[in-house]
Each structure stands twice: as C-alpha cells, then as structure tokens.
Fold tRNA pseudouridine synthase A.
Amino acid sequence: MTLWALEIEYNGTPFMGWQRQKHGLAIQQVIEEAASRIRGGAEVTEAVSAGRTDAGVHALAMVVQIELPDFTPYRIREAMNFHLKPHPIAVLRCGPAPEGWSARFSAKARSYRYVILNRPQPPTLEVKRVWHVKAQLDEQAMHRAAQLLLGHHDFSSFRASACQAKSPMRTLDFCAVRREGEKVIMETKARSFLHHQVRNMIGSLKMVGEGHWPEARITKILAARSRPAAGQTAPAEGLYFTGVEYDPPLELS
Amino acid sequence: MTLWALEIEYNGTPFMGWQRQKHGLAIQQVIEEAASRIRGGAEVTEAVSAGRTDAGVHALAMVVQIELPDFTPYRIREAMNFHLKPHPIAVLRCGPAPEGWSARFSAKARSYRYVILNRPQPPTLEVKRVWHVKAQLDEQAMHRAAQLLLGHHDFSSFRASACQAKSPMRTLDFCAVRREGEKVIMETKARSFLHHQVRNMIGSLKMVGEGHWPEARITKILAARSRPAAGQTAPAEGLYFTGVEYDPPLELS
C-alpha cells in the first residue's frame, strides 16, 4: 500500500458534507468505499482531506489522502472514477504522497470561492450552485469592505457557535469581490478558516453591497468579537473549495 | 387580456421537453399553469414557443407567447416567477407582443449552443448540463469541418426520422466551434433547424475532432442525404437554446 494524494472535484448537493455521518451519505464515505472496491473489498484507512466542507458545499480541487495500491497515477484515477460512479465526485489528478506529508496538517493555504447570482429572476440552471440575491449589489463597495478583513484578527464575529478550533485568531491573506455579468464572486485565501467563516464574511459583505451597512462597519464587527454583530450565514450552496497549497507543491498527474 | 412575449430560461433536466405530454411534466404545461394561477385559475390559451426543445435540452433565452392580464412587465415577470416555483424555469424579461406577431412564425433566426466537457474525468458540477467526451478533441478541425455545413443544403443526413418538417432543406447561417479550457463549445444559427439537427451535427463533428473522420467527410455526409451516413445523435443534456431574432426586434424589459 502507498499513501496517495488525490485532487478531487465534487458537487456537494447530494451529500451531508465531507465528514462521515450516522445518517446520510458523506463524501469521505464514498471515497473510502471506492478505495475499498479497488482493494477487492478490503478495509481501508480513513480518507483525510485538506478541508472538511459542510453539507451542500462544492469543491473544484479538494486534496485527499488515502492508502491505495502501488499503481500508476493514470490507473488510480481511472479506477477511482469508475468506482465513484454514479456519485458526482471525480478524481482530477493524483500522485504518491511525499514522505511525512499530511493532506490536512501540511496545508499552507486554503482557497474558497463564493458565488452570488445577483438578479431579480430566480436561478434555473444554477439551482443549488449559487446564492440568489435579488437586490442589485455594489460589488466595488463589497470589495473595499473585504479589504478590512485582511490580516491577523480575532474572527469570533464570523465564527459558528459549533466551531471546534482552539483559537478564534486567523490570518486572512486575500479577499477580493468582483462582478461577472449577473454574478458577484468572492475569492478568499488563508492558512485556515474557522467554521462558517467564509459564509459569515459574505453574509456581512452582502449587507454592505445592498447599501444597508457602511463599509467601515466591517471593522466594527471584527472589533465586537461577537457573532450577532455580523450578518447572516450565507447558504452553503454558493460556496466552492477551490484549492490548497503545500510547500513543496504536490506533484500530481 | 393581452398577448405577451416572455423571454424564459430553463433547466431542461426534469422535463419531458417543451411540448405538453400525456405522461410527465412539460415546460409548456408549467408555463400555462403559472399563467392560469395569475388569472385566478381561469383557463388560458396555449403557450407557443419559438422552439420546441426535446427532453433534457436547456434554454438561456427561449421566447414564448401567452395571454396574460394587462399588468406592467415588472408585475408579469414577478408574478410568473412566483407561480413557476419550484420549477427551474424563470421569466427573464417580457413585454406586450406587437400586433400580428407570433413567437414561432415571426422568428427570423434561432441560435443554439452545444457544450462538450472534454476531459478524461467525469463531470460532477455539470452533470446533465454537458456531453462528456473523454478523448482529446481537435476543436480547430471541428471548426473547419463545421464551415462545410454552412449555406443552403438538404440536411436529410442530420434529420431525425421522427422529424415533421415538410422539407429537409435548411440554410445554416453560422456554426463555430471553440475551446474554453476543458470545454469544447459549438454555437450555431439558422432560420430554423430540423429535428435533432444540432445534436446530429455535433455528433459528426465529434468524429472529426477525435480524428476518426477527415474534415471533408462532412461534405460527403451532406451529399449522401441519408441519416446513417452521419455520426451519432449527441445527448440532449449538452444542448442550449440561446436565442431567437425577430424583425423588428422585440422590446422586452
């Protein structure tokens, strides 16, 4: 057996999230079951991911570690994708993991995208893949407000009550908001995020974009260190895990 | 009552197609039922569309005519979208129809897009919205071959056996194939298309893109005037109705 790094893409809609649950299907479970089938039904070690996404959250390039046979990357990818059917999870690339590497603990930076469909009409083709906001958003005001979140802060105001992290301190490295036609898109990056941090950030930035809050209120929300000071938790369906960085970078094919 | 022109968007996945069926839900039926609810449950006239899409085919800007009350366009759009819920159909814009106008018979040009996901890994986020083709396609060869389809031809080789059109003669005004990352996209335009014509055209262009057929074979297929001479009918799920042109143009808001 070899420890493999798998870069995977998934549609989070039908899943309870990354982590195995008693009730309902989790992405972790589907990955482990596909790996087990490659091994002829043998028990497999736990699949560990760079990020544990919530129910309904999507991923464009999640990285997962799991033990698999010593095949070529091509054969591992094809075999995994065969056994992952019909679930909307695909192995994009893969490779043997470097010595001592952990998908979770070796991650230097994680990136997320949040997609708002900003138009009066409801979504049709992108149902469950966007947050529908009817009122016209000022994405430039949202971008300026987002810059107030950058740096090392106590993010308690943007932290879910269920968050298990020991410290509310996080360093936000990047946060940009742009418009692409009917969509308003936030991209953000940090070494790690608190539970619901991205969804809570965009929930407050939306209040700025709608003109309900001045941009400077973001600084006051941070200073309050209190969840009720911030805006709503945006729905999971607009959130995409877009990537994770390691040093040295993973070599996948 | 006023005859309205509605520009609508829909995800074709859950529907039996545009046209009302005995078994299963059609887009036409959902539109008529929403219109009826706006009219307090009264019987409504038949909804007529610019194109009758097949089961699973999507639309970004289909135009539909139906009688509705003499409200403002804003109120018609909001009321229709309210009553269309939870179906993935949305009225984007609307306006009172010009005198003597028909959504179907006044159409001067119809446009379609066909989207191929061209990568070894299966689709996840775009399941039911693309045709998955694993082998690397030469989109430039496909584009050159597509130019051989332009003009006035007998399109019998690209016509479904169930096609009800009186003549197999059609004039193809535009057909372009391009790559956008992992996607190969065809855009095409004509006054009207035969049944399955777009899906049969891309089915043959894919054979060129995979290197199985030389580009010039497209000319031979046209000359054969025989459906078996052409490639497979590409799946409905990659097809999008993208627009219809009228002269004078519709004024919608």
